[in-house]
Amino acid sequence: MKYYLKLGLILFIFCAVASGILAYINTLTAPVIAERKALAEIQAREALIPNAEFEEKESDQGLTYYLAKDPETDEILGYTFIAADLGYSSTVQTMVGVDSEFKVLGVQIIDQGETPGLGANCTLPIFTNQFSGMTLEEIYVDKDGGVVVSLSGATITSRCIANSLREGIIDVKDEPNPGGEQ
Asked: Residue 107's domain spans which residues?
């Protein structure tokens, strides 16, 4: 019995030391990871609506979106936001750019953990480029009667991206005055 207690105590000490080291490493890396993620979001936003000034807003439903304005004329160029929904194995986050008429300018997958070779193909331009120019009514996967060609073997991922885009556009569009003061 004494032998098992000794082994248990040694194992506990190793686990405590390892946990402490991991916690310390996390405190060092967490700010760097957050900074890189914020930079990636800014770059995606600027790639979707180039040469624009972005103003952060929040919808009544809690969605954070960015109003894109022409810096010289103050004309509204469009909106960007992160659409997120649960896919097959992870939450898929998509940066979406829409024009002032809420027609999709483009999408970029900024975070996903889907199955490699299947759902992870959602990051490929052959999938993301098909959203460009679509209206709210068109953003349905082909298996739901829409025009978005779903990824082979990854209908759930395709559907989650299309649904999150639609929901995000509806949230921004339903704002009483999405381009004005709140």
From this structure: 1-182
Using the 8-state DSSP alphabet, how is residue 141 labeled?
B
pTM over 0.85: no
Q: Which helix (H) or strand (E) holds 17?
A: helix 2-48
> Mind listing the pLDDT tens digit for each residue in 62-87?
888 999 998 888 898 999 999 999 98
Copy the structure tokens of residue 159.
């559907």
* Beta-sheet strand order (sheet of 64-69): 53-58, 64-69, 76-86, 91-99, 104-111
Q: N- to C-terminal Cα distance for the chain?
A: 69
Nearest CA to 77 out of 62, 86, 66 is that of 66
Domain count, the chain: 1
CB contact at 8 A, 52 and 155: no
Model confidence over 92-143: pLDDT tens digits?
A: 999 999 998 999 999 999 989 888 888 888 989 999 999 999 998 889 998 8
Burial class (CB in 10 A: 0-12, 13-18, 19+), 163: middle
